Amino acid sequence: MVGRAGRTAHSERENTMANSSWLAICAARAVAGAAVAFGLHLAISDAALAQQGKQAQGQQQQQQQQQQSAWVKLCEKAPLATRDKEGKLVREEKEICLTHHERLDGNTGMVIVSAAIRHVEGIDKEHLMVMVPLGMAIPPGVRAAVYTPEQWEKAQKNEKIDEKELKPISLNYTLCHPAGCTAEVEATKELLDSMKTGGGLMVLAINANGQPIAFPVPLDGFTAAHNGPPVDSEAYAKARSQLMEQIRERRAELIRQAQEKQAAEKQGSEKGAAEKKAAEKKK
Length: 283
Prior knowledge:
By secondary structure, the chain is of the alpha+beta class. The protein has helices spanning 4-29, 46-66, 149-156, 189-197, 222-227, 233-282; strands at residues 72-83, 89-104, 111-120, 126-132, 142-147, 169-177, 180-187, 200-206, 212-218. The protein has two domains: 9-231, Immunoglobulin-like (Sandwich), CATH 2.60.40; 232-267. It has a nine-stranded antiparallel β-sheet with strand order 1-2-3-4-7-6-5-8-9.
């Protein structure tokens, strides 16, 4: 008879194998959004996966062209509340550093996906934080996997990846705000080392309709940012503000062009109707 510990270990092995399989399917379909089911409660047909894979390839190409920022390290002092050995609440200022990457929608300025390694002064453990857009199902959490450069290249070519080579990471949602929902997990040394030598991080979430969505995060530049000094926060904020202003101007121009086109089409339609009516009167 199998004991409780044996059943637990067996269940964990099954979950790990299942998660690896789903991540491999995602990579085989497309690097930037092939649908992958990472829960036994989801079932997706090959046809649906293929369709989402085609859409994902187009999105990946567009995102590569519109990529607005790379990995950067940002540090700032912030007040933190902790408890001492006696359980008393202690408030003190700590330096918090984020080695951060985000992808922006070039048309709206909205964050498509962001990832960061958070380090708090005086705390040995670091954490991986991933933010995805609002509208994702909370209970399933987020799944992720670090791809080696070879796996990342295969994924971009829609080539099959050996599922046994993937090591799924489970992240739990910790906070939702107007910009999106953030999920976290401890960034172990093994995870950090794999990110420093990896080609990309594949993030998977499920939207409110039960559809799995993949968000690719390239790891180019991660090692230099994580190991190096922080950038000037004020200069970074200024550059990002200028970028957002450019996006707003672009969006305003697109809206203006659409309105002019709509007005011209309406005017042409009204003119055509008037000419038709005049021709009918002549008869």
